[in-house]
Here is the input.
Amino acid sequence: MPLDELYFAVADVVERVKTKKKSLRSAVYEHQFQDKKKLLRLSCETVKYAQLFDGLLENSNLSTRLLDERAYEGSLPLIHVLLYEFLIGNGLNQATQRLKRPIHSLNMEIRQQEKALSAQGRGLEQLRNGFEEEKEKEIEIPRYARINGLKWTRDEAIETLREEKWQIIDGSDTIPFSQQITQLRDDQVLFDPHIPELLIFANSANLHAYWMIEQRYLIFQDKASCLPAFLISPPSGSHCVDTCAAPGNKTSHLAAYVGNEGCVWAFDRDPTRANTMKRLVKQSGAGDIVSVECGDFLRIDPSEERWKTVEFAVVDPPCSGSGMVKRMDEWTGSSAQADRLGKLANLQAMLLKHALKLPSLKRLAYSTCSIHEEENEQVVREVLKECSTDWRLAENLLPMWALRGKESYEFGKHCLRADPKITFTNGFFVVVFERIEEKKKKKKAKKRKIDDEC
Ligand SMILES: C[S@@+](CC[C@H](N)C(=O)[O-])C[C@H]1O[C@@H](n2cnc3c(N)ncnc32)[C@H](O)[C@@H]1O
Here is the structure.
């Protein structure tokens, strides 16, 4: 079976990534090509080595002949994927004649140009060495798994882990956390020093088919992503809203806090993602606590009777995802585009302001998995400017947390940031808004009046 269809699909994906329309993963998952694993792998590899192929095409004879080749339809991404297969991948033997012949006929020229690039330090070997060095410098984020409080208690989890011969390590104050996680053996489990329901396993531990994970007694969830629900810790029986909830990691965490007497309304406007969330939430034992609302949160009327009991909220809106480790951004440079960040920031601020209109709301966590100030401190500043009579940022969030918001903002110390090198998690940002009580509001107004009179 020729692989032409795969090569054309990769070319589509690379084209969409290059024109900044999509992240590589979304482009792959939205593509009709069935074998996503193959498509993802080859697309990643093609994008990764793009600078080599651009270097080859600096040779005008090569670029003219390849771009003029009818079978290639002038498509640079298609030429890139074919060059990848020819020089680095499995060869072009599984392509049809029309795709492989032009490249094979230029074999000598391609090899010569690659040699010329090598002489300039831009050849294949140098590129490979560069990737190896980067890999060595990469921080390995440990495997975090949250004890699902809806299925069992922390004590039951500990007891069962012990019975199953896991060695439980109780985190020491004398050994740095970084050392503890890197020394973790495959049969050991460490308790997270900040979030009591969070366990840490060695990356090399083979857990995917483990019953605790399969049956969602433990839920894989990065530590940073556990912060929003943990920081607002809604009490048992309370009512919450998760404005942008799918696939529902933070929703099921909220559900574990509020328990069977409570309720979480989980919004998502994407029907496919909302359905996935429904399934996962049910598997987590939160089916009766969570009400999945497929729709745009911005369209709800916060003053409607239905929302009068909501006291806690999480706003985890769409973001650039620039904090996520192992994205392709370092090769595609696609995340930090100013106009994209601007549009995201607008949506983020709108969602946040809308949620703050819920009349009985007490605490709200705003979070992104972005490292960009535009989506984080700038959004918070804009919202505080408009809502500061009723809302302020919670202070002293996790005093021991190593990384705070940008110091150039007066509220920077009230924000938590996460960074793989410092917090051993994905990059993340979170703040908690808390409602200013009436008494404090009056006091604040009085002080303002006195200041004005002075
Ligand atoms: C960052 S993801 C949420 C991840 C989720 N909180 C979790 O932890 O599993 C953002 C989600 O917001 C949804 N979304 C975007 N705009 C929305 C809106 N106006 N109303 C509701 N959901 C929205 C997207 O479909 C996407 O699933």
The longest strand covers residues 428-435. The radius of gyration is 26 Å.
